[in-house]
Amino acid sequence: MATHNLRIVGMKWRNMRNFEHLPHQKLGAKKLQFSKEGWSLLQIQNNYGKTSTMHLLRSVFTGVKMPKNKIKGYRYRQGRTDWGGDPEAKSEFSVMLSLDDEDFEITTILDWKNMSQVFHTYREGHGKRPGWNPPEYFRALFEGKMDFAELLILDGEKARTLNRSHGENTIGRAIRQVTGLSSICDLIDENGEEGKITELIKDLEKTVGSGGKKTSTLENNLLACIEHREWAEGERD
Predict the structure, then answer these.
(1) pTM of the entire structure?
(2) SS3 state of residue 20
(3) φ, ψ for residue 59 (rounded to 5)?
(4) Which of 58, 100, 206, 231 falls 20 to 30 Å from 64 in CA-CA distance?
(5) Where do runs of H (alpha helix) occur along 84-210?
């Protein structure tokens, strides 16, 4: 199985919550902002936009737009404009990623006045184009898979919800989404719910019994089938 190397190498905020204009380095820069060690610490002060950033990351990763009634909450709300903020402008968030040997960037723009959201994608050799158009492997892994994205891009609020929840199967649904095993997983029992195999066994038990009775019933039915076949062959002759 082929292995892939995917990581976030930069993010950019513009007119987003309390972020005026925080750009990342340009694509192709030799020195990237995020660590190559597999983890980075992102520290943002309270009420500035940490949770909003996590929501936007999931949206960018999956191509799933934010709920329209939530878009207005992402507008720039700082009173000051001397650092480049514009309270009347659209909000913009970008993520620069590296997949194997390709760098690409996905940008989402939220128009809080019209309650709309659009994506733009920059890829080497293709330039910047409208729409959510990442490399094929990235698309296959993340497109539309919000359950998976919530586990991968996990914040404190989501972790607390998972810890407190009962009867939820977010992890199971996420694995099914990313592996395409939904139809197979439906066969097995999970979280107190019976799968199709158990349902089939119960249906058979109603027909042929269970335990020793099941064996006896199946043998008798088999003998009856053999006798019927012999009778049918005699009638045919």
Answers:
(1) 0.66
(2) strand
(3) -65, -45
(4) 100
(5) 136-142, 146-152, 156-164, 170-179, 182-185, 196-208
